[in-house]
Amino acid sequence: MSNNIESVLKEDRVFAPAEAFSSAAHVKSMEEYEELHRQSIEDPETWWASQADALHWQQRWEQTLDWSEAPFAKWFVGGKLNACENCLDRHVREGRGDQVAIHFVGEPGDTRDVTYNELLGRTCAFANALKDQGIKAGDRVLIYLPMIPEAAIAMLACARIGAVHSVIFGGFSANSIKDRLEDSKATAVITADGGWRRGSIVPLKANVDEALEGENTIEKVIVLERCSNEVTMTEGRDIWWHDATEHMTDECPAEAFDAEHPLFILYTSGSTGKPKGILHTTGGYLTGTGSTFKYIFDHQQDDVYWCTADVGWITGHSYIVYGPMVNGATQVMYEGAPNFPDWNRFWEIVETYKVSIFYTAPTAIRAFIKAGDEHVEKHDLSSLRLLGSVGEPINPEAWMWYYEKIGGSRCPIVDTWWQTETGAIMISPLPGATPLKPGTATRPFLGIDAAILDETGQECGPNEGGKLVVRQPWPSMLRTIYGDDQRYKDTYWNEYEGIYLAGDGARTDDDGFFWIVGRLDDVLNVSGHRLGTAEVESALVSHDAVAESAVVGKPHDIKGQAVVAFVTLKEGIDGTPDLNKELRNHVGAEIGAIAKPDEIRFTPALPKTRSGKIMRRLLKEIVATGKVSGDVTTLEDKKIVDALIASGENGNG
Ligand code: PRX
C-alpha cells in the first residue's frame, strides 16, 4: 500500500492556539480534546446522545443506535422531531426572534436582513403553500434556486412538512435535472425565473422546462421571481411563488417526524456515470451538523458567520442551512461570484457585516492569491476570529497566505475533511485546542473513529499511506444510496467488514494527524467539487462524433485539478478546433459548466490493457509530465504512447 499512496509533503510549521482564543473556546486544550475523544470512542452512544440532547425532541428516543442491520444504521430509534422547528421556532420561542438569521447580499448589490421571526413566518407560509399544492410528507421535491434566502426557506419548508428535498446546484444543466428527477421520482420543482452570475442571468426556469420535456413525475413547478427575466408558465403545472403563498397564513404546525424520516437526497458523483442519491435522515443529521458547527467553528452567540459555498452542495446543506440554524447563528449569504464586480467583493462583505467566522474552499483562496493582495489589503478584516477550509486538501502555501493575509496571523484555520456521505465534518482541528500544521485536517472529531488501513485491513503506522476509513457508525452518516441499497453496500462497506470506506487515500504523521492525499477512485476534485470521470466520459460519447473517451485529472494551480479528455473520433471524422469547442459545450449542456473539459485531446486510440481496460495511470502521467516513465508491458499497443504524448504537443487540445 505504502508504495501506491505516497505523500511527499513535509511540513514542519506548527501554530498553537492563542491563549485568549482557547480560554473562551468550547474545548480549551489538547488534553481536554484527547480525553473527550477517548471517552467518545469508547462509548460513542453516550457522546452522541449528549449531542442529540441539544435538539428539541417532541418525543425522546428509546435506543440511541440500532446497528443490527449494518450497514443500515438507525439512530435515536423511536425519537420524533421536526428539523425546521429545530432550526427556527426554537430560537423564536427562546426570545431570539429579532436576531438576524441571514444578512443577504445579492450579486447586483441588493441587500436584505432576514430575522429568525421573518424566516419562520415565511417558511411556514411557504410550507402551507406546498401543502396547498398537494405536496405531502415523503414526497420528493427538487429545489433549483440561486443562493438567496428563499433557497433556505424552500428547504426548511419541505422539512417542516416532511417532504424530502433534493437540491440541484444552479450550475447544473437541464440534463442533470432530468437524471435526478428520474432517479428521485420527484413530484414538484421549486425554482426561480433566473439567478445572477457574473452579471448575467442563469435561465433556471428555462432549464427546468427543458428537463421536463416528455413524460415525467412532476406535477407542480413553483417559480420564484428573482431576475424578472421572461419565462414561460405552463398552465396547471406552473405557479408563481408569490401567488402560491398569497393567501397562506404564516402558521404551520411543526409535525413530529421519526428520527429516521428522510430529510434530503443530495446527488454526488461516484465512479460510474450515474450520480448517487445520498440519503440523509433527520435526527442523526441534525445532531451531527449541529454539534460540529458548535465545536469546530467554536460558534458563540455574537458571531457573524459566513460560508461561501452554494446550497446546492453538501457544504451548503450542512453549514449554511442546518448546522448554523440549529445553533441559532447569524450568517451572511451571498448570491454571486467572488470576483463580481471585482476581487474586492468578499472582503467588502466581511468588512461591512463584521464577519467573525469565514468558511471557504482552497480553490477560492488560490484564486485570491493570484488576483493580488491589494484587494485584501484595502479592507478592514479585523472582525475575523476563525477561518475554515473545505473541499480538498489545502496546499501549505495557500494555508499560509490565508492565515497571514486574511486571518492577520491571529485566526486559527479549521481544515475540515468530510464528504456528502458523512453529512458533517469528520476530521478537523478544534480551534481552541489543536495545534495547527498547514495542510492537515489534523484529528477526528469527537465520536468519530477514523483510521487508515492497509490492503489487509491492518492499521497503518505513522507516515504509511493507506485508505481512510471510519470504524464505527456516526449519526450523520448517509443511510443508503437512494433506491440502491446494493450500490450503497458495494461502494462503502465491501472493502472491510463493518467499516466505512471513504474513498480517500491518507496517512497519519507522528502526532497522529491525518493528511489527506486525494481520491483513490476515478473521481476528480475540480474546484472543490466532486466530478466522476465516468460522467464526463459518458457525456462525451453521447456526442455523434465520438467513438470513445477517457477522462483524467491534471494538476491545476487554482482548480486543484483540471479535466483532460482523451477522445477518439468515429471513422472519417476530423478532430478540428471547431469540433473540440463543440464537444466542450456538449459536456456543458449534458452536465453543467463545471464539467467542461479544460482540454480535449484527439487521439487515434486509447491505451488499453490486453483485457481492454483503459490505463488511466498512463494518461495521468502523460497529462502531468508529458511523458511515460512507468511500466507499459501490459499495454496492448505500445505505439499508441507516442501518439498520446503528441496529442498534448500538437496543439489540438
Ligand atoms: O476527497 C475528499 C475531498 O472531497 C471529497 C468529498 O467531496 P464532496 O462529497 O463533494 O464534499 C465536499 C465538501 C465536504 C473527499 O472525499 N475533501 C473534502 N474536504 C477535504 C477534502 N480533502 C482534503 N481535505 C479536506 N479538508
Keywords, please?
single chain, 653 residues, alpha/beta, GMP Synthetase, Chain A, domain 3, 7-stranded mixed beta sheet, 5-stranded parallel beta sheet, 22% strand, globular, binds adenosine-5'-monophosphate-propyl ester
- Our count of helices gives 21
Helix-strand category = alpha/beta
Spatially, the strands of the biggest sheet line up as: 5-4-17-16-18-19-20
- CA distance, first residue to last residue: 34 Å
CATH homologous superfamily title of the domain at 523-649: ANL, C-terminal domain
**Strand-residue proportion:** 15-25%
Which ligands does the model contain, each kind named once? adenosine-5'-monophosphate-propyl ester
CATH architecture tag of the domain at 523-649: 2-Layer Sandwich
- Work out the helicity level: 25-40%
- How many whole angstroms does the radius of gyration measure? 24 Å
The major beta sheet can be summarized as:
7 strands, mixed
Overall pLDDT level:
95
Return residue spans where pLDDT drops below 50 for at least 5 consecutive residues: none
What characteristic shape results from the CA principal axes?
Answer: globular
CATH topology term of the domain at 523-649: GMP Synthetase, Chain A, domain 3
Strand tally, please?
30
Q: What is the CATH top level name of the domain at 523-649?
A: Alpha Beta
